[in-house]
Design brief:
mainly alpha, 8 helices, about 70% helix, about 0% strand, elongated
């Protein structure tokens, strides 16, 4: 996240005088001011700085798209991790214990118990639901629609914005939202 904040601050500094929107972006990107913020608040600050830069015609649409997907992924992952620990891990552990399996992935491929397969599908569905809800909470309804209805287009747009920040280096890309076909 620090690298993204630094890049946005650099874009603001490169634009000349530091009044108005530039000062607000630099404030949002200031490491000292965000050092004690929870991760979810820092992610929202990143999104706010990106929106300001986009409205000032400094940040291209595809870069804003990437940051919105990254922030959504980050916030959704925090919620999903919490849900997994509270609602899914105990159920997966019970299935594992009842089949005397040490680890979740010790089931032979295609030999998973039906209750394990059903629970894994439920968890996958939860990931999708939480991700879409997070897009909507961030005011990104169109991104939610693309994520649900045209995942390949969503990924192409996200990858184009990713290239703005990281070039062609795909090693920094998260597997959470998938790859285009």
């Amino acid at each position: 996240m620090d690298m993204l904040f630094n890049r946005l601050a650099g874009l603001a500094r490169a634009e000349g005088s530091l009044g108005g929107w530039r000062a607000r972006v630099l404030e949002l990107c200031d490491p000292a001011l965000r050092a004690h913020k929870p991760q979810h608040e820092a992610a929202l600050d990143l999104m706010a700085a990106a929106r300001i830069l986009h409205e000032a015609h400094v940040l291209p649409q595809e870069a804003l798209f990437y940051l919105a997907s990254w922030v959504t992924e980050h916030l959704a992952e925090l919620e999903i991790t919490n849900l997994y620990g509270r609602h899914f891990a105990p159920r997966f552990d019970e299935i594992r214990r009842s089949h005397r399996i040490q680890e979740h992935f010790d089931f032979a491929r295609g030999k998973e118990p039906s209750e394990y397969v059903d629970l894994a599908k439920e968890f996958d569905s939860t990931i999708g639901r939480v991700t879409v809800e997070t897009f909507h909470r961030l005011g990104e309804g169109e991104m939610a629609r693309l994520y649900q209805e045209d995942r390949d287009q969503f990924i192409r747009l996200r990858d184009s914005g990713h290239a703005f920040f990281f070039g062609k280096d795909i090693s920094r890309r998260s597997p959470f939202l998938g790859d285009a076909k």
